[in-house]
Amino acid sequence: MTIQPSSSLSALNSNGSKFKSLPTDLFRNLASSTTEEEILQAAVKIVHQNLRCDRVVVYSMQSKSLCKITAEAVTPGYSQILGSTIKDPCFEARYIDKYQRGRVRAITNIRKAGMSLCYVENLEKIDVKSNLVVPLTSADNSLYGLLVMHQCSRTRQWEQREVEFVLSVASWAMKQVAQQKDSHRLQHQVANNEQAQQLISEIAQKIHGAATSEEVLQIAVEKSKEILQCDRVIVYGLQSDSMGEIVAEATLPALASILANVIKDPCFEYRYIDRYQKGRVRAISNIYEAGMTSCYVDNLAKIGVKANLVAPINLDNGKIYGLLVAHHCFDFKDWQKYEIEHFKQIAFHTGLSLAKAKLKEQSVLVEHGLTELNNIRDNIDLAQAKIQQIENPIQNTGKILIEANNLNKLLEREINVINQNGSEQTKKNTKLIHIIIRKLAVVSSKMQESLLRMSNNKDEATAILEKATANLRGNRFE
Q: What would the DSSP string read from start to end of 389-401?
C-alpha cells in the first residue's frame, strides 16, 4: 500500500497514548545530533523504541541496485547488519521510481506478500518475518534511501498510525539532514570566502605596492590565473574604439604567447566600451553557445579560447584603461559566482593602482631630471672656479708685459743716447743689444695677443656659463 503522512509528530502524540513519551525522547535525541550519521542513528533509535520492533535500519542508496546500511537499532539476539553493503538485483529501477514518488510498503508476512524469491531469501537470512519500508527523500526529491522496520520474532500487522509515525520521523530526519548539509556547505563557503578575501587583500596590497604600471599589470594577470586556475589571463589595453594591444599576460607553457599582439577587432564596437566602463562583467562558459557574433567567436577560436571571463579595468577618474580577460582553452568552464567576484575585485584594484603607478613613474622621472640638473649646476660651478683660476694668472701676466714694454722703451731711449755720444766699439755693442730688444718686443707682442685671445675666450665662456646657470636656476617643475 502507498500511504502519505497526514499528521505531524506532535499531532500523533496528542491522538493517542502509544507515543506519549515521543516529544521528550524525540526532540532530546534529535536536537543533540550534529552530523548526518548521528541524525540517522537517532531516527532509527526513536522508531525502534516507540514501535517496539526488532530492527530498524537506514538503507542509503549507493546506486540503483546497491545499498549500504548506514544506521541501525536492533534488539539483542538478532543479527547486526550496520555497515553492510547489499547488492540487491531484485531492487530494480522501477522500485526506485515508486519509492521516490512516496511509495510505502507494509508487509505483514513476507512469505505471503508475493515478493520475488530472491528478495524473500535475503530477508530470511536476517530473520525478517514482517517489514515496513518508507522512503527517505532528499530536498531535491531524489531518493536518499529507505527507512526499514523489521519484525523478526513473529509476523506483525502494521497499524496506520505506526506508518504515519514512521513517515513523520523519516520526513523530519531528512529535513535535519538537509539542514546539516546546508550548514556544512555554508560553513565551508564562509571559510572559503574568508580565505579568498584574505588572498584578495594580499593581492591588492601587492598590486598597490607595485612601483611601475608594468608591474601592476603583471601581478594582476599572474594572481588572477592562480586564483581561477585557468589557462591564460591577459590585459587588453584599449588604444581606440576597435583596436587594442595585449600589454600583460600569464599563460600555460603549452599555449602560444599572444603578448604584444595588436588586435583590430571590428566586433568590439563603442557601445561595448561604454558598457564595460560602467562596470559590465561578462562570463562565458562556452563561446560557441553564447550568441556572440561569428567574427568575435573566430577571433577567440584563433587563440584557442573555449570559455572566457571579462572584467573592465577602470582608472580612478572613471576612464576605461582596458580589459582583464581570463581564458579557458582546453575545456569549457562554468564560472562560479565567487570566481567572478574575485576576478572583478582584482580588476578594480588594478585600475586604482595604475594611476598611482603612473604618478610614481612621473615622480621618478622628475627626480632623475632634478638630479641631472644638479649635476650640471655642480659642473658649471666647477668650470666657473677654473675660469677664475685662469683669470688671475692672465691678469698677472698682463701686468708683467706692461712692465716689460716700459723697460723696453727705456732701453731704446738709453741706446739712442749711447749711439749719439759713444765710440764705434760702443755702438757695435749697443747694436747687438738693440737687436735683442726688438726680438723681445716681438715676443712680448705675441704674448700680448695670446693673452688677449685667452681673455676673450674666458669672457665668452663665462658669459655662456652664467647664462646657462641663470636658465637652470630659473626652471620650475610642476
A: HHHHHHHHHHHHH
3-state helix/strand/coil string of 428-457: HHHHHHHHHHHHHHHHHHHHHHHHHHHHHH
Q: What is the CA radius of gyration of the chain?
A: 51
Structural domain containing residue 240 = 205-357
List, for residues 158-183, the tens digit of each pLDDT value. Answer: 999 999 999 999 998 999 888 888 88
For 82, residues 6+ apart whose C-beta sits below 8 A from its C-beta are 57, 69, 70, 71, 72
Q: Contact 100/141 with Cβ under 8 angstroms?
A: yes
Between CA 357 and CA 208 the distance in angstroms is 8
Q: Is residue 2 part of a domain?
A: no
Rounded CA-CA distance 82/79 in Å is: 9
**154-158, 167-171, 312-316, 440-444: which range is least confident on average?**
440-444
Please tell me the total number of residues recorded for the chain in this structure: 478
Of 133, 132, 138, which is closest to residue 171 (Cα–Cα)? Answer: 138
The answer, yes or no, to whether residue 196 has pLDDT greater than 80, is no
Q: What is the DSSP string of 102-129?
A: T--EEES-GGGTT--HHHHHHHHTTT-S
Of 303, 323, 357, which residue constitutes the final position of a domain?
Answer: 357
Asked if the structure places residue 388 within a domain, the reply is yes
The answer to the question of residue 324 being in a domain is yes
69 inside domain:
yes
Residues 29 and 67 in one domain: yes
- Percent of all residues in the chain with a pLDDT value above 70, rounded to a whole number: 65
CA-wise closest residue to 311 among 349, 352, 347, 269 = 347
- Please check the confidence at residue 13 and state whether its pLDDT lies above 80: no
